[in-house]
Design goal:
- This protein is α/β, with parallel strands linked by helices and 135 residues long.
- It is built from 3 helices and 7 strands; from the N terminus they run βαββββαββα.
- The strands form 2 sheets. The chain has a 4-stranded mixed beta sheet with strand order 3-2-5-4.
- β4 (58-64) and β5 form a beta hairpin.
- The radius of gyration is 16 Å and the shape is globular.
- The relative contact order is 0.23.
Length: 135
């Protein structure tokens, strides 16, 4: 029997998930907004739910399973999504202090985005590629 593939535009590394669990105990349920630049560069910004309000010009990329009771929602501005719609994003963490108001700042770590191009099956699934059956 063939295995069913699950498609997602976003993922989280084990290290970033561990930091999200730690931050959730301090701040409650969290969410990400992928910045489009300016003051915070293009860093994924992590906020307690309700501290950053999304609107009609934001696109929900998906939910991260970080081993918490609630998933961590990930949003991106519609304009930035147009540039990145052919990519899969993975939220990771590295040592260092990032800019902006993201909640991980005081930990001495910062969230970053690692990206890759969507593969052929993903392109079809997200209606971005040819709809022909893949061989």
């Amino acid at each position: 029997m063939a295995e069913t593939r699950t498609f997602s535009r976003v993922a989280v590394t084990d290290a970033a998930a561990a930091l999200l669990r730690q931050l959730t105990t301090q701040h409650g349920t969290l969410m990400f907004h992928q910045s489009g630049g300016c003051c915070d560069g293009s860093a994924p910004m992590c906020y307690p739910v309700g501290m950053f309000l999304t609107g009609p010009s934001d696109v929900k990329l998906g939910d991260l399973d970080a081993g918490l009771d609630d998933p961590v929602e990930v949003f991106i501005s519609e304009t930035q999504f147009e540039y990145w719609k052919y990519t899969h994003l993975t939220i990771d963490v590295v040592p260092g202090r990032g800019a902006g108001f993201s909640v991980e700042g005081p930990t001495g770590n910062r969230f970053i985005i690692r990206s890759r191009m969507l593969d052929a099956e993903e392109l079809v699934h997200f209606d971005l590629g040819p709809s022909a059956t893949l061989a």
